[in-house]
Amino acid sequence: MNIGVDAMGGDYAPQAAVLGAIEALGYIGNDTRITLFGDREKITEILRQEGSSADSFDIVHTSQVIEMGEHPAHAFTWKPDSSIVVGFQYLKAGKIDGFASAGSTGAMMVGSSMVIKQIEGIIRPAICTQIPTEDGGCSVLLDVGLNVDCKPDVLFQYGLIGSIYAQSILGLENPRVALMNIGQEAEKGNLAAKAAYETMDGTESFRFVGNVEAHHLFDKKIADVIVCDGFVGNVMIKQAEGFYSLMKQQGVTSPFIEALNYEEIGGTPVLGINSTVIIGHGHSSPKAIRNMILHTETAVKAGIVEKFKEAFK
Amino acid sequence: MNIGVDAMGGDYAPQAAVLGAIEALGYIGNDTRITLFGDREKITEILRQEGSSADSFDIVHTSQVIEMGEHPAHAFTWKPDSSIVVGFQYLKAGKIDGFASAGSTGAMMVGSSMVIKQIEGIIRPAICTQIPTEDGGCSVLLDVGLNVDCKPDVLFQYGLIGSIYAQSILGLENPRVALMNIGQEAEKGNLAAKAAYETMDGTESFRFVGNVEAHHLFDKKIADVIVCDGFVGNVMIKQAEGFYSLMKQQGVTSPFIEALNYEEIGGTPVLGINSTVIIGHGHSSPKAIRNMILHTETAVKAGIVEKFKEAFK
Q1: Set of chain B residues whose Cβ sits within 8 Å of the Cβ of A259
Q2: CB contact under 8 A, B245 and A215
Q3: Which of A6, A163, A212, B208 could join A101 in a cystine, given CB atoms 3.0 to 4.6 angstroms apart?
Q4: pTM for this one?
Q5: Do residues B268 and B262 touch, judged by C-beta distance below 8 A?
Q6: What pLDDT score was predicted for residue B25?
Q7: Mean pLDDT of A31-54
């Protein structure tokens, strides 16, 4: 397999991206190659400095970079030779099996929806994250920011998408799927949550266990997969990020607090599209990039895209 | 002034409620009396055990209790001699100046909306909470659960309500009001947030400072008052509660973590109704009850109800 990595993506690119790719070499399978998309001269210079052979990677030279402030859709048109645009072309052509970048989230979304496109039968793709739990494991939260106004049928599909992700990536046999809500009873919640509960209750598509309240976000008392709209999910992950920063700033630590570090999680997959795409955190360190690459490899190996296609046929 | 307290409200009532009221005696003003609503025999027995004089309180005997599992609106009709129903009658009649209970949240809501009623000009009342911040202070978050589907004009009013609350209770002169959102830019968010931003932008009713993201919930970098719908706000406070429990369970502590303890906050005021009503946490300890009573006294002293009436005239 061949994993494409945007060497120009992230606040500390290309340095952090290339260092992360070098780190990843020590972990990926023997039959996995990494293709770096970016400025060949800069990439090879970093590899030289690190004493890493340029032969360890495939390098695709690109002359442009989509900056964080740019309008994503416009940038996609105006910068055809940018690392992200070329990466998506390779992905679509099947020259790479997955693509990961810590660069412009917006551009990664545009590439996912316009170039790779959603799987037939899936109303809207989602992005998910792994939430660390008190037992040292994690649960899956989706959507965390792609669809901020979710209709009930979209939330229902997220239950199935999350279930397949938890089976394939976390190895859970029959994951418990819950709806994020403000009470346990069926009649609780806003209009969307109440209607979503009705569509999920009694489904055979996944193992629905009812509502979960946010004080159970960090334990596994109720659920392995938690479904919510992208507004609520995004607020939740940013609040967790706020806890983590504050605890670090105050010098308070624990294994759980460390697990909240985005570096450990290794990026946010775009689920429900025709290939494997992972979006890294803008502040990605080499370790975060390494984990983003490993996450991409795991998703490709698990054949998660094929599983979605099968489930939504 | 006279503060009414539901002696039968909360998981550990009447014991915890009466003990909390006794504790509060050491903190309230000389001209403040506390009226306890509940079973006179049980109340006086606890006072006797504690060596506290029954003369320290006004006691209104009630023979019924609304339980947590009961349908709030039905219970309000079926249990006319319950501590909550009688408390609201006293409040409406002006025999007490504020009413606080750690009992059935639903029944407290019913009393607030059906007996005390919202102030003319306010579309929907809200409940708010004080969020501890890293500087040892706090910010105000509303709504935290009363209105789960908020129209933009309701969110706008919450900006003004929160601003008046922060001025009156926290003593902030010109509080910064922000909209909880998933990005800083005006065009970010779900439909309600985008429309609310438009109504708030440029307002002279309060000092609107734009969007705030949830990683700033625990600092004061952006705002003193944070406005969101009741679904999002409820999820946020429950997530914070979950984080607090987990830290306690793992033996991790810090002044900030301690400040997340609901006992410190002393209840959630119902804002936008014609009198002062504070709802305590079901698990309230005596300390939490004490702080709930002090919070009620502060709100009455600050004349917050009159300020809302003036602002929405």
Answers
A1: none
A2: yes
A3: A6
A4: 0.94
A5: no
A6: 97
A7: 96
Percent of chain A past pLDDT 90, that is, above it, reads: 88
DSSP alpha helix (H) spans, A83-141 = 83-93, 105-110
**A236 to chain B: which residues are within 8 Å by CB?**
214, 235-236, 239
How many Cα atoms occupy the beta-carbon half-sphere of A279 within 13 Å? Answer: 22
Is residue B137 within 8 Å of residue B171, measured between CB atoms?
no
B145: region left, alpha or beta (phi > 0 left; psi from -120 to 50 alpha)? left
Those residues with Cβ within 8 angstroms of residue B249's Cβ, 6 or more apart along the chain or in another chain: A134
pLDDT tens, residue by residue, A120-130: 999 999 999 99
Question: What number is the ipTM of this complex?
Answer: 0.93
Which residues from chain A sit within 8 angstroms of residue B182, using beta carbons?
145, 148, 230-231, 234-235, 238
Please indicate whether, in this complex, the C-beta atoms of B256 and A240 are within 8 angstroms of each other. Answer: no
Q: Which of B133, B238, B244, B262 would you mutate first to test chain A, the one with the most A CBs within 10 A?
A: B238
Nearest residue to B59 (alpha-carbon basis) of B89, B81, B33, B25:
B33
Size of interface A-B (CB pairs under 8 A): 114
Residue A102 near residue A292, CB atoms below 8 Å: yes
Is the torsion defined by CA of A162, A164, A168, A173 positive or negative? Answer: positive
Q: Rounded to whole angstroms, how far apart are CA atoms B204 and A291?
A: 48
